[in-house]
Amino acid sequence: MSSGLSQEDWDKVYGKRMKQYSKYFKKVLKGEQMENLEGDTAKATENWMEIARQNQRNTDYYRDLVVQCGEAIGKKAYIQDDGGIVKDVLCAKVPELVREFIRSLPV
To answer: Which of 90, 16, 19, 3 is nearest to 55 (CA)?
Structure first.
C-alpha cells in the first residue's frame, strides 16, 4: 500500500481490537453462545477487513492517477500556496491546475 498503514500493521491493529472485543463478550456470554459469536465475529471481521483492504487499494489506485496527472502538469503541481516547493505532487491542487490548463486552450 502506498499510503496509510501497511497490510501487516493494519492486521495487527484491527486484530488486537477484535481480541479486546472477544474478551469482553466472553465475560458476558457462556458456552455455545460464545462459540457461535466468535465464529460469526471472526467471519464478519475478516469480511470487514477485506472491504477495508479493497477500499485502500482503490484509494491508492485513484491517488496514483492524480499523481500521474500532477507529474504531467509539471512544476506547478509541486508549489504550495505560500510558494514553498515540495517533493510530492500536491494532489488537492491538480484539479485547479487542470481547469487552468483547459481554460488556456484556444477555443
So the answer is: 3
The verdict on pTM exceeding 0.70 is no
* Cα 16 from Cα 100, distance rounded (Å): 47
From first to last of the 107 residues of the chain, give the pLDDT tens digit: 444 667 777 677 777 777 777 776 666 666 666 566 667 777 777 788 889 889 999 999 999 999 999 999 999 999 999 999 999 999 999 999 999 999 999 98
SS3 state at 94: helix
Task: Report the distance separating Cα 62 and Cα 53, nearest Å.
Answer: 14
Q: Which long-range contacts (CB under 8 A, 24 or more apart) does 43-51 make?
A: 45/14, 45/18, 49/10, 49/11, 49/14
Domain boundaries, the chain: 7-104
d(CA 34, CA 16): 18
